[in-house]
């Protein structure tokens, strides 16, 4: 919270459910800064993408989820009535090891800050990233 932006407790609950439950419900969780620029909150439901498949099918679902995220971002970027908000995405990424062919997965955090975002949004986002990762106890390179 070095930026003065608090982490809403619902972010911790969502992270615990995602991380400890090994994403039984969601493949992607998304956080953003609220409109008052004083708290990090979970984003709208459309940005919380479900997980329905595992194993080989999980790899395909990972690819589909990436396409869904791209489409959500493109839709927001193309709609002038919606502000382009910076976001943190945490995704469970299924893949197959090339060395031995085994299926595995990792949690991946992506920081997304569109160029069209307002300066205040960009600055608050940049100064709050470490606070979010520290609060969630996420090992991330910011």
Structure summary:
The protein is 38% helix and 25% strand. It is an alpha+beta fold.
Q: Could you please describe the fold and organization of this structure?
A:
There is one protein chain. The chain is of the alpha+beta class and 142 residues long. It is built from 3 helices and 6 strands. Strands 1, 2, 3, 4, 5 and 6 form a 6-stranded mixed beta sheet that branches. A hairpin with a 5-residue loop joins strand 2 and strand 3. The two termini are 15 Å apart. The model has no long low-confidence stretch (mean pLDDT 89).
Structural topology:
Layout: E1 6-7, H1 9-20, E2 26-33, E3 39-42, E4 49-50, H2 55-78, E5 87-96, E6 103-112, H3 119-136
Parallel strand pairs: 1-3
Antiparallel strand pairs: 2-3, 2-4, 2-5, 5-6
Features:
142 residues, alpha+beta, 6 strands, 38% helix
Compressed to H and E, one letter per element, the order equals EHEEEHEEH
- Compute the average pLDDT: 89
Radius of gyration: 16 Å
The number of helical segments is 3
Shape: globular
Give the helix level as a range of percent: 25-40%
Q: Total number of β-strand segments? A: 6
Return residue spans where pLDDT drops below 50 for at least 5 consecutive residues. Answer: none
**Helix/strand-derived class?**
alpha+beta
Query: Major sheet, described briefly?
Result: 6 strands, mixed
Instruction: Compute the separation of the termini in Å.
Output: 15 Å
* Beta-strand share of residues: 25-35%
């Amino acid at each position: 919270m070095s930026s003065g932006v608090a982490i809403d407790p619902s972010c911790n609950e969502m992270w615990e459910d995602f991380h400890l439950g090994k994403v039984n419900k969601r493949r992607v969780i998304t956080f953003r800064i609220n409109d008052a620029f004083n708290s990090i909150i979970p984003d709208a439901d459309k940005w919380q993408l479900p997980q329905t498949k595992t194993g080989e099918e999980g790899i395909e679902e990972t690819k589909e989820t990436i396409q869904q995220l791209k489409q959500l971002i493109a839709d927001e970027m193309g709609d002038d009535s919606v502000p382009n908000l910076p976001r943190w995405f945490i995704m469970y990424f299924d893949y197959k090891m090339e060395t031995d062919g085994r299926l595995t997965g990792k949690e991946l955090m992506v920081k997304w800050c569109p160029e069209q975002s307002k300066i205040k949004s960009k600055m608050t986002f940049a100064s709050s990233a470490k606070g979010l990762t520290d609060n969630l106890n996420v090992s991330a390179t910011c």
